[in-house]
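Re: [ENG-882] Designed sequences occasionally contain unexpected residues at chain ends

Forwarding the minimal case from QA. Structure tokens:
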């Protein structure tokens, strides 16, 4: 339905008439217009009449265009919520949730509670109890804050994790469809997340002590794996016990991705922490292409390649070097096989200088602290243990040999080891069995792991994966899933904004200034909407959303 201006010419004069019309399709499928109401000549309408007419139509919905006054008693952020509602619809979240809800027996408004959980994570991440307070500060169409209950939020989380695979798979397929992508390149990486609350560990607890990427080895943690496409679209996540070794998760993830997404040929890109002999065997036997990071310290082949790469760089100035190497791998049951792998080394001068300076600073700090410890009035054995502790803390154990005699402590620098370390500064190595990429393309694809690393930053900081105060495995997994679903929405948001080079966080900040105001008038509750203009209009246009109007409320 729309307002139409009809023009006709009589006596050499143009006459304009206002009409209310609607569009429809005739029996042949052609779009036609029909007039529903004649409002009369445009020159008979004055501004006051237009406002009165529109106000009369809006009044039935409790809305008004009248000027606001001091009766305003509530202001709620709305613009960013309107954008999230659009993305929610674009992802078909309502249908995805409804399909799983059918047989659940849930009677409360499940979608409203899930929408509240995910929108809160994107707008102002908080605990479930604080979420109820947050609802008082935002306007979400169709959701009455008084209907959102704490116990239902927890039940909604339980629903999510009970249907994780189907919800996650359907949402991932929707994202792939939106960007017309196939799952051919699979980026996989892991991170850890520790717990703020201290609760006693029980047998089989998913919270465990392990290698902490947050440098909080004093806290229990979980390990989280994320899978993304080559363009940085997150499609799946995994939660493992906090003491799970990274490399032990790879085969489980690959088998799951193949089964769920019905794909056979996947090119895996992963960091060196995923590389092991057993994983190489699995990748080769299952026919995967791969690009994996390789440790420049622990592999003989890698050390040899670095030596050749340095010589090649000095002779030619080239910073990428490749060697085809035959490597023997074996299965758990002792089967052996020789395979040819591409070893590609890449050099960055800025990284080399940064690593060198960092190591020199750590060495100098260690030597100074060692001298201070030697001067302490404690026994020699205690001094020895303190020096060894500093050495370990500074990650310098392989560069120094500390010897304890009856009365003295001798510190010997391992010059040969230091020299080898300096030669590897600035270099990293990947191994691959992919032959359709040049060495430069192969390095570039490996560097695209930055999408996953950026994703971990978003999860931990922008979406506040921490603090995590849950302590049962089901709720821990559900909390991570809420964060992951919010992350998927954030990625869609930011990709839609790529044309104006605006981050989704910056867009949310701008849109929060579009507010809904509420007040009492003539015994009825009224609503008004602030003006939408400038950058806000541009954001709505970029994501494909209409701008909010009073009728949106």
């Amino acid at each position: 339905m729309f307002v139409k201006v009809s023009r006709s010419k009589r006596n050499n004069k143009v006459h304009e008439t206002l009409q209310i019309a609607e569009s429809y399709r005739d029996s042949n499928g052609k779009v036609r217009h029909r007039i529903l109401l004649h409002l009369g000549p445009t020159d008979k309408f004055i501004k006051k009449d237009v406002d009165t007419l529109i106000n009369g139509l809006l009044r039935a919905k409790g809305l008004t265009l009248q000027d606001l006054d001091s009766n305003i008693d509530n202001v709620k952020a709305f613009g960013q919520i309107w954008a999230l509602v659009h993305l929610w619809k674009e992802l078909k979240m309502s249908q995805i949730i409804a399909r799983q809800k059918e047989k659940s027996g849930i009677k409360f408004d499940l979608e409203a509670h899930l929408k509240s959980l995910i929108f809160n994570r994107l707008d102002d991440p908080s605990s479930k109890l604080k979420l109820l307070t947050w609802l008082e500060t935002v306007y979400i169409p169709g959701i009455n804050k008084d209907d959102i209950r704490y116990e239902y939020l927890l039940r909604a989380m339980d629903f999510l994790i009970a249907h994780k695979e189907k919800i996650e798979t359907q949402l991932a397929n929707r994202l792939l469809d939106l960007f017309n992508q196939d799952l051919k390149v699979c980026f996989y990486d892991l991170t850890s997340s520790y717990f703020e609350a201290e609760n006693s560990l029980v047998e089989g607890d998913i919270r465990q002590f392990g290698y902490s990427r947050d440098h909080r080895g004093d806290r229990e943690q979980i390990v989280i794996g994320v899978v993304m496409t080559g363009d940085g679209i997150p499609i799946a996540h995994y939660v493992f016990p906090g003491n799970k070794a990274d490399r032990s998760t790879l085969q489980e993830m690959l088998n799951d991705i193949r089964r769920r997404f019905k794909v056979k040929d996947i090119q895996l890109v992963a960091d060196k922490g995923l590389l092991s002999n057993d994983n190489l065997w699995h990748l080769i036997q299952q026919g995967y292409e791969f690009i994996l990071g390789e440790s420049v310290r622990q592999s003989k082949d890698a050390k040899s390649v670095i030596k050749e790469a340095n010589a090649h760089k000095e002779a030619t100035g080239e910073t990428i070097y490749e060697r085809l190497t035959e490597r023997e791998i074996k299965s758990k049951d002792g089967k052996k096989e020789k395979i040819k792998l591409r070893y590609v080394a890449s050099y960055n001068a800025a990284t080399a200088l940064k690593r060198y300076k960092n190591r020199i600073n750590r060495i100098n700090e260690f030597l100074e602290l060692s001298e201070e410890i030697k001067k302490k009035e404690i026994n020699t054995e205690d001094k020895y243990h303190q020096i060894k502790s500093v050495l370990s803390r500074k990650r310098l154990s392989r560069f120094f040999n500390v010897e304890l005699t009856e009365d003295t402590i001798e510190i010997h620098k391992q010059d040969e080891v230091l020299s080898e370390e300096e030669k590897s500064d600035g270099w990293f190595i990947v191994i691959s069995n992919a032959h359709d990429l040049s060495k430069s393309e192969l390095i570039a694809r490996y560097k695209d792991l930055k999408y996953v690393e950026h994703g971990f930053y978003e999860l931990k900081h922008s979406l506040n994966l921490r603090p995590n105060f849950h302590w049962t495995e089901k709720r821990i997994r559900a909390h991570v899933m809420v964060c992951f679903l919010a992350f998927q929405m954030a990625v869609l948001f930011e990709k839609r904004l790529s044309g104006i080079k605006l981050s989704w966080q910056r867009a949310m900040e701008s849109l929060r200034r579009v507010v809904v105001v509420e007040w009492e008038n003539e015994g009825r509750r009224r609503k008004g909407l602030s003006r939408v203009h400038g950058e806000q209009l541009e954001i709505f246009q970029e994501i494909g959303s209409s701008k909010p109007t009073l009728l949106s409320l």
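QA comment: On inspection the terminal residues look reasonable. The radius of gyration is 31 Å. Proposing we downgrade this to a documentation issue.
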